[in-house]
Amino acid sequence: MTIEKITMADQFYATQWLHVMLNKDDWLSSQIDQVVKARDEFKKICLANTPDRLNDFCKTWLSPTQWAELDKTITAARERRKSTAEQDEHHAGVNLTHRAKFILERLSKQYDCSISDVIEQHLVDRVDCDLPSN
Q: Is the pTM of this model over 0.85?
């Protein structure tokens, strides 16, 4: 089953994939004038940066087989995003000064552990509250 619509979240991956594929000889068509016309239109769509125009382009220029290839690419990207989002639930970002980063990296190498482990193992005694579990 092919995708019916490229969403805003899918647009980056779809555009990147189409850019690569449109630069392959004979992928879109064996007629060079058609390929040039499609590439020019695609450049304008990339500048416009709207999924609706990208969908219209794909409906106009892609065969059902090419849509299926694009569908596989978008499905894989969606799965990677989902997996990354699930991993991010267990991690938090922190802004550090260069000096703090240097210290944590040095301790991490010295004790052969991650920076998170350095913080958890060396600072746990200084926290005056109940800590959440992992």
A: no
